[in-house]
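Note to self: user wants both folds in one dump. Writing first protein now.
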Amino acid sequence: MQKRARKTRKKLKRAALDVFTEKSVDAATVEEITEKADVGKGTLYQHFEDKEEIVVTLVEEAVKHLIRRIRSYDTVPETLEEMLEHLLNAHYRFSVEAREEFLLLFQGKLLLRLESDTLDELEEPYIHYLEEIEEQVSPYLSPRIAAIKIRRLACAVAGFVFGFFSFAAIGMRPEEIESSIQPLRRTFVKSLCTFLGR
């Protein structure tokens, strides 16, 4: 019974992720999710309170996957520049290997909804994500650098990734994206180092 319930929940999450990335979170309906999962509407409510709970669950899982990718090193970076390069590479690999999760996490309308006071549980995974970036770069920084500056750096990394990969995905093959980001990435990394006074 539990195994079947887990399988159904997984099927609902997969269907929701597909629908959210095809149509956007706001435009997607519960009916479309259940139709895609080939289950009744009542089945969805046995597993999730509402569409918002599915969104939060999927965002939490996507953030966990992205953080695992961020924590996965080929070689441990020795400098701030190398760490920033690693962070951008980790995001790139995540965008290729987990495209739907990437699109869900960095959906423009979903990010705008974070400004709402009623979506605290949706905000939490994003805060955790920014804190992870801060934690990764902090060992390479002077302890005198203000925490707000480190948070701005984390936001800059997220913004660069969202902006570049969102637009590059339009009409570009993965190898074209990878080669075209190289010069931009070097300039971006140098700018961040300058911003941090390095």
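First done. Writing the second protein, which came from a different request thread.
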Amino acid sequence: MNRDTDIARGCAIATISDTRTAETDRSGILASDLLRQAGHEVLQQRIITEDLSMLRHLLREWTDDSRIHVIIGIGGTGLDSTDITPEAISPLITKHMPGFGEIFRMLAFQEFGVSALETRAMAAVCHSTLVYLVPAEPTAVQLAVERLIVPQLGERLPTERLRPTMLPPVHGRSGAIM
């Protein structure tokens, strides 16, 4: 069994877009496939319009669901006036994780060039839920999920003292709390 499946997480994916449908949401499908391949369970997946109030309501609903440990928001992280995903999550943040956005932009710059500076990709803890916000392009989603999100979900967080704040305890194959 692969290491990532030993620490399975309940996940939710929101694609923030006014134009995508279930059939055209390549990024949402890709994120779902990558999470499942790593042994995580996708419990919710939705496409939601770029509406601050609706998005904030959905994020609150999901952070209140104890089965959901991880939320990935896809889209709405650019500089356009309709890009409101970071603003939607802002009042829900318990702890910021600035390293995610910094490393994502560094990796994206290495692969795609200076356009990486235009993303407001970020991660935060909202109550006990990890929330990642990534650009909507499939290549950006693949980079974030494969190189940063899945590896982090498969690792113990830095200290056991902080772990309960960030993720609920999970059971490994043996049933022992990890």
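Dump finished. Worth passing along: The CA atoms of residues 171 and 177 lie 5 Å apart.
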